Amino acid sequence: MLTLDGATVRFGRDRAHTALDGVDLTVAEHEVVCVLGPSGSGKSTLLRAVAGLQPLDAGRVLLEGRDQGAVPAHRRGVGLMFQDHQLFPQHDVGGNVAFGLRMHGVPRRERPARVARLLELVGLAGAERRAVATLSGGEQQRVALARALAPRPRLLMLDEPLGQLDRTLRERLVVELRELFAELGTTVLAVTHDQGEAFALADRVVVMRQGRVAQSGTPLEVWRRPADAFVARFLGFDNVIDATVTGEVADTAWGKLPVPAGTPSGGCRLLVRPAGVRLVPAAAGLACTVTARTFRGSHVALRLAPCDDGPRLDAACALRDAPETGAEVGVVFDGEDVVVLP
Amino acid sequence: MSTIKKAATVALATGLGMAALGACSDSGDASSNPGPTTVTLVAHDSFAVSKGVLKDFEKKSGYRVKVLKDGDAGEAVNKAILTRDNPQGDAFFGVDNTLLSRALDNHLFQPYRAGGLDLVRPEFWAGDDRHWVTPIDTGNICVNYDKRYFTAHHLKPPNTFADLAEPAYRNLLVTENVSTSSPGLGFLLGSAAQYGDKGWPAYWKKLRANGVKVVDTWEQAYNEEFSGSAGGRKAGGDRPLVVSYASSPPAEAIYASPQPRTAPTGVATGTCFRQIEYAGLLSHAKNPKGAKALLDFLISKEFQDDMPLNMFVDPVRETAQAPALYRKYAVQVDTPQTMAPEKIAAHRDQWVRTWTSLLLK
Amino acid sequence: MAVPAAFFAVFFAYPVAGIVARGLRAGGSWHVGWIGAVLTESGIGHVLWFTVWQALASTALTLLLALPAAYVFARLDFPGKRLLRALVTVPFVLPTVVAGSAFLALLGRGGLLDQLWGVRLDTTVWAILLAHVFFNYAVVVRTVGGLWAQLDPRQEEAARVLGASRRRAWRTVTLPALGPAVAAAALIVFLFTFTSFGIVQILGGPAHSTIEVEIYRQTAEVFDLPTAAVLTLLQLVAVGAILAVHARTVRRRERALHLVDAAGTARRPRGAAQWTLLGGVLATAGILLLLPLGVLVQRSLRTTDGYGLGYYRALASADGGAFLVPPIDAVANSLQYALAATAIALLVGGLAAAALSRRAGALLRGFDALLMLPLGVSAVTVGFGFLVTLDRPPLDLRSSWILVPLAQALVGAPFVVRTMLPVLRAVDDRLREAAAVLGASPLRAWREVDLPMVRRALLTAAGFAFAVSLGEFGATVFIARPDRPTLPVAVARLLGRAGDLNYGQAMALSVVLMVVCALALLLLERAGTENTGEF
């Protein structure tokens, strides 16, 4: 459906700042792809480039195999939901949703039914006559979505689709969106800085870093095997440590850690997922002091400082097992949750 | 701007132009492609002719006449000179004896001896016998006086240039800047004809000492300062003497309601300078034949009879007779000052400069 | 971008260049030396000096008298405010022929000053200065007052809570925010007075002359094209410099200020000080602006047999002889021309503003100033330029009616640009993008997104362009066709003939013009915009 081929965008004086740096990306029919990255990683620029709002300095954008270089934004047939919605203040809700229909020459008499159906789809049935200024953030969000969906774009792009919403609303909407896209069979390219949102929404996640693709894969793959320390840290994993591998054992500042069979010998970096940091009595493992303890609902996140002044590490444990701040604990590492990073 | 947008704007502009054209289509007679039977007369703003008279000419000659008024006399001449090589019309009306040399020096006209010229007194003819221009009308620039003022003050109105410098008429005269007003210039030329090339500055010094007021335009002098005009009365004008035309009193009477028995203003007939207006065949006229017919028409009896009430000037054709209404109020000027166009051309600029430094500095 | 640029190139730059070239070229070569020769003439030096100092003095006086009014219109609420604001703008669009003559009634013989103290100011510099105030009062009131009304009063309140006295709060908070607007208004007033023509000619008497007056004399009367060309160049340079400074000031002003809806900032006057101020402003406006207008009305009604509508009735007959048509037809002509001119001005100015709002390079900013250049170039220069340049197909427009609206649009377009630009700059570009992604072409996006948002500003711009076109005299008089005179041209022609009926009709027609202008401006006020005609 969508192919980016070495897409490059530069900004600024002398085009010194590279916002997109040779990005290759494909999105298959009916696939939901989420681009994940910190702010400034080039996510929004990527969407604008695909939409035709941002000309490329190099590379190509292909939709259904056709180069879009000479196609202006309004002829590309893609939908884009803006980060802050950008609803037209001079139109009411119905007018906003019907905008794309009008632009695409949908006959006047067909429009009300389609608008009504779209509003129903996003849970705002009967809101046609409301002024956009009276809508809450979540409602604006839904209207923007309905508006983007209305012309039945071959590719729907969402820029931080749930960014400005509160947590509960966001969690609910993620599920709704997922269902909606499945129902409509829409091809979706979304960008977000929120990993939870990305993992919940996407068939495939693309992590971006400084204008480049750092990793691409299913949420599970990315979660389980972050491609590098940057991705690991961006996913919230802070237990990254330099190591020297010999056979199935790696030597680190935290002592010897098990690594999967077949890991090449020599220097590398290891990620230990918090779940793989298991607490044992102080004498039975790496001795640490608990420096912070955060209740996370389903589990407790611990911050541990090794007594030998090694790098700090994160651990997760069940509420009933959680030690108090200041307690001395021992730590052993579970080979299952150790990931070798390049 | 994208190509599409550009195309769209051009389309829009075109559409707009069309719409505007449609809206003003009632002015269609101005179509930019006058047929061969159209003859265009370029004239100054004061040109006027009765509809019936013009219609008559069109019917007889077969030409359609388009009149293009092109500003006041000076502007119209200048514009005609500027556009000499690609003129806006075929014949030009309205160059007077003060500007004639400028027109001739710039080769504005081609010679043509109008039919009926024999009936125009030779004193009005200008230039050499090749007849570059045809005299059309004449008028006099004279001091006008407010009859009411002089009656009320038991004062005899002035009659000559010399009178105006008398203490009895102190602070009574208003005239116009000679560099911006043709009556102003005419009055200066009249004084120069009276007192000679060397003598006139002394006369103007006396006028200045006697409180002459100078304003820029005839409109101001006549409508604001002169106590005898309709505008001046409303504006509280307090100058009972003004440099204007010998035909101003008839206009003052004819455009009053009800029309008075005699005009409220009079003419100091000893202060007059004769102005003659000419017409000519433009050098690069596209329809010279039509232009010639038009020139013949301008000195025809029909036009000459009609002219006085339209333009408030006197006919040059001997047999012409102004309408009774005009004659009722008209003032006879028998011996106006005159000056040959060549002489005017030779001294004009220098005199204007001298006058300006005498009166305005 | 291409359309406005082409428009200004063909209908402004080319004609002006053409007439200047006529003056400075002889025998196939340029005579740059003439420039020096003209400039060293003592008379010209005098003209230059007078032009500059009267413009400075007029600007100072205008600010002095109009700034309190800007405050009153911005911050105080009183009955009849809208009507008064429309009325004080009327002089700005009134042809100078008419206004000048009305002004004489105030300052001249038998005028108010004469009756009260026996003081007559006509043909003095004072008459010129006061008349310049009369004409430019509205520029200051609207530009400064418009912004003032939108300044958030709470900022001043915040300063006072922090311990600043009322005066100190004004000086430290309000004045800096208003500064650029005041500077912009001052520069525009300076520009208008620097290039003043009719006022100086009518009120100043023959002893006073500005560059503009001199250009007219040299072109139309003396036919000394070299001198006129040098003066035109000189004025272009001066005006260009003024506009460059103005463009800088405007840009400074367009930087973010915290603006609020003007409707909420005005209050009924409180306390003796505010009542005095209001009274003073009303008195000044009344004497300086409304009285001359009133004189016109009075003269138009005073017929030889008492007061009546005789002159107005006479307007409908063609017997006057000054025209081939009844003078009242001039109203229809004027309206048609003004509508066409407004359409052109909106198209050209709107496109220019749209282009300027999207990109900001040094070149484009220069174009911004360039668009205002026609305001500072003598109408006679443009008029004669039309004649010598637009004389070959496909541009043989010399005797075409379209020249009139074109010339008027030249004057109207700058107003459109200045009114629309701030509003267009405020339109979020991403709304246009949203429309584009939904399938709207750029033109469609403009229609769907920009147009609804700028509709008010557009209306304002249209009204102003309309009023200015209606009142435009200088260029129109050169090119209006005799059988289709516009209102100001008809007034001038009537004034050019002797006789009670002609004079009375001129006055009556002036009143008609005044009323049409006032109505157009009042409609703008109704549209509810506060930033009408900002510069």
Question: Which characteristics define this entry?
Answer:
heterotrimer, A: 342 residues, elongated, B: 361 residues, D-Maltodextrin-Binding Protein, domain 2, 2 domains, ten-stranded mixed beta sheet, 10 strands
| Broad shape of chain C | globular
What structural category arises from helix and sheet content of chain C?
Answer: mainly alpha
The beta-strand count of chain A equals 20
Q: Strand-residue fraction of chain A?
A: 25-35%
Distance between the termini of chain A: 32 Å
Spatial strand sequence of the major β-sheet of chain C: 1-2
The main sheet of chain C comes to: 2 strands, antiparallel
Q: Which fold name is given in CATH as the topology of chain C?
A: MetI-like fold
CATH superfamily of chain C: MetI-like
Biggest β-sheet description of chain A: 6 strands, mixed
Number of helices of chain C: 23
Q: What's the order of the H and E elements of chain C?
A: HEEHHHHHHHHHHHHEEHHHHHHHHHH
Question: What is the H-and-E element order of chain A?
Answer: EEEHEEEHHHEHEHEEHHEEEEEEEEEE
Q: What overall form of chain A do the CA principal axes indicate?
A: elongated
> What kind of assembly state do the chains in view correspond to?
heterotrimer
Mean pLDDT of chain C: 77
Rg result of chain C: 23 Å
Write the layout of secondary structure elements.
The complex is a heterotrimer of chains A (342), B (361) and C (535).
Chain A: E1 2-11, E2 17-27, E3 32-36, H1 43-51, E4 58-63, E5 66-67, E6 78-81, H2 93-103, H3 111-121, H4 137-149, E7 155-159, H5 167-184, E8 188-192, H6 195-201, E9 204-209, E10 212-217, H7 219-224, H8 229-234, E11 240-246, E12 249-252, E13 255-258, E14 266-272, E15 277-280, E16 286-295, E17 300-306, E18 313-317, E19 328-333, E20 338-341
Parallel strand pairs in A: 3-8, 3-9, 6-7, 7-8
Antiparallel strand pairs in A: 1-2, 1-4, 4-5, 9-10, 11-12, 11-14, 12-13, 14-20, 15-19, 16-17, 16-19, 17-18
Helix pairs in contact in A: 2-3, 2-4, 3-4
Chain B: H1 3-23, E1 38-43, H2 51-61, E2 64-69, H3 73-82, E3 91-96, H4 100-105, E4 109-110, E5 133-146, H5 147-152, H6 161-164, E6 173-176, H7 182-209, E7 213-215, H8 218-225, H9 230-235, E8 241-245, H10 248-254, E9 265-282, H11 288-298, H12 301-311, E10 314-315, H13 324-329, H14 341-359
Parallel strand pairs in B: 1-2, 1-3, 6-7, 6-8
Antiparallel strand pairs in B: 3-9, 4-9, 5-8, 5-9, 5-10
Helix pairs in contact in B: 7-14
Chain C: H1 2-24, E1 25-26, E2 29-30, H2 33-39, H3 42-75, H4 81-93, H5 96-107, H6 112-117, H7 125-150, H8 153-161, H9 166-194, H10 198-203, H11 211-221, H12 225-254, H13 271-301, E3 302-303, E4 306-307, H14 310-314, H15 329-358, H16 362-372, H17 379-389, H18 403-426, H19 429-437, H20 442-471, H21 474-479, H22 487-495, H23 500-526
Antiparallel strand pairs in C: 1-2, 3-4
Helix pairs in contact in C: 1-12, 1-15, 1-17, 2-12, 3-7, 3-9, 3-13, 4-7, 4-23, 5-13, 7-9, 8-9, 9-12, 11-12, 12-16, 13-23, 15-16, 15-18, 15-20, 18-20, 19-20, 20-23, 22-23
Protein name (chain B): Thiamine ABC transporter substrate-binding protein
Keywords (chain B): Signal
InterPro entries (chain B): SBP, ThiB-like
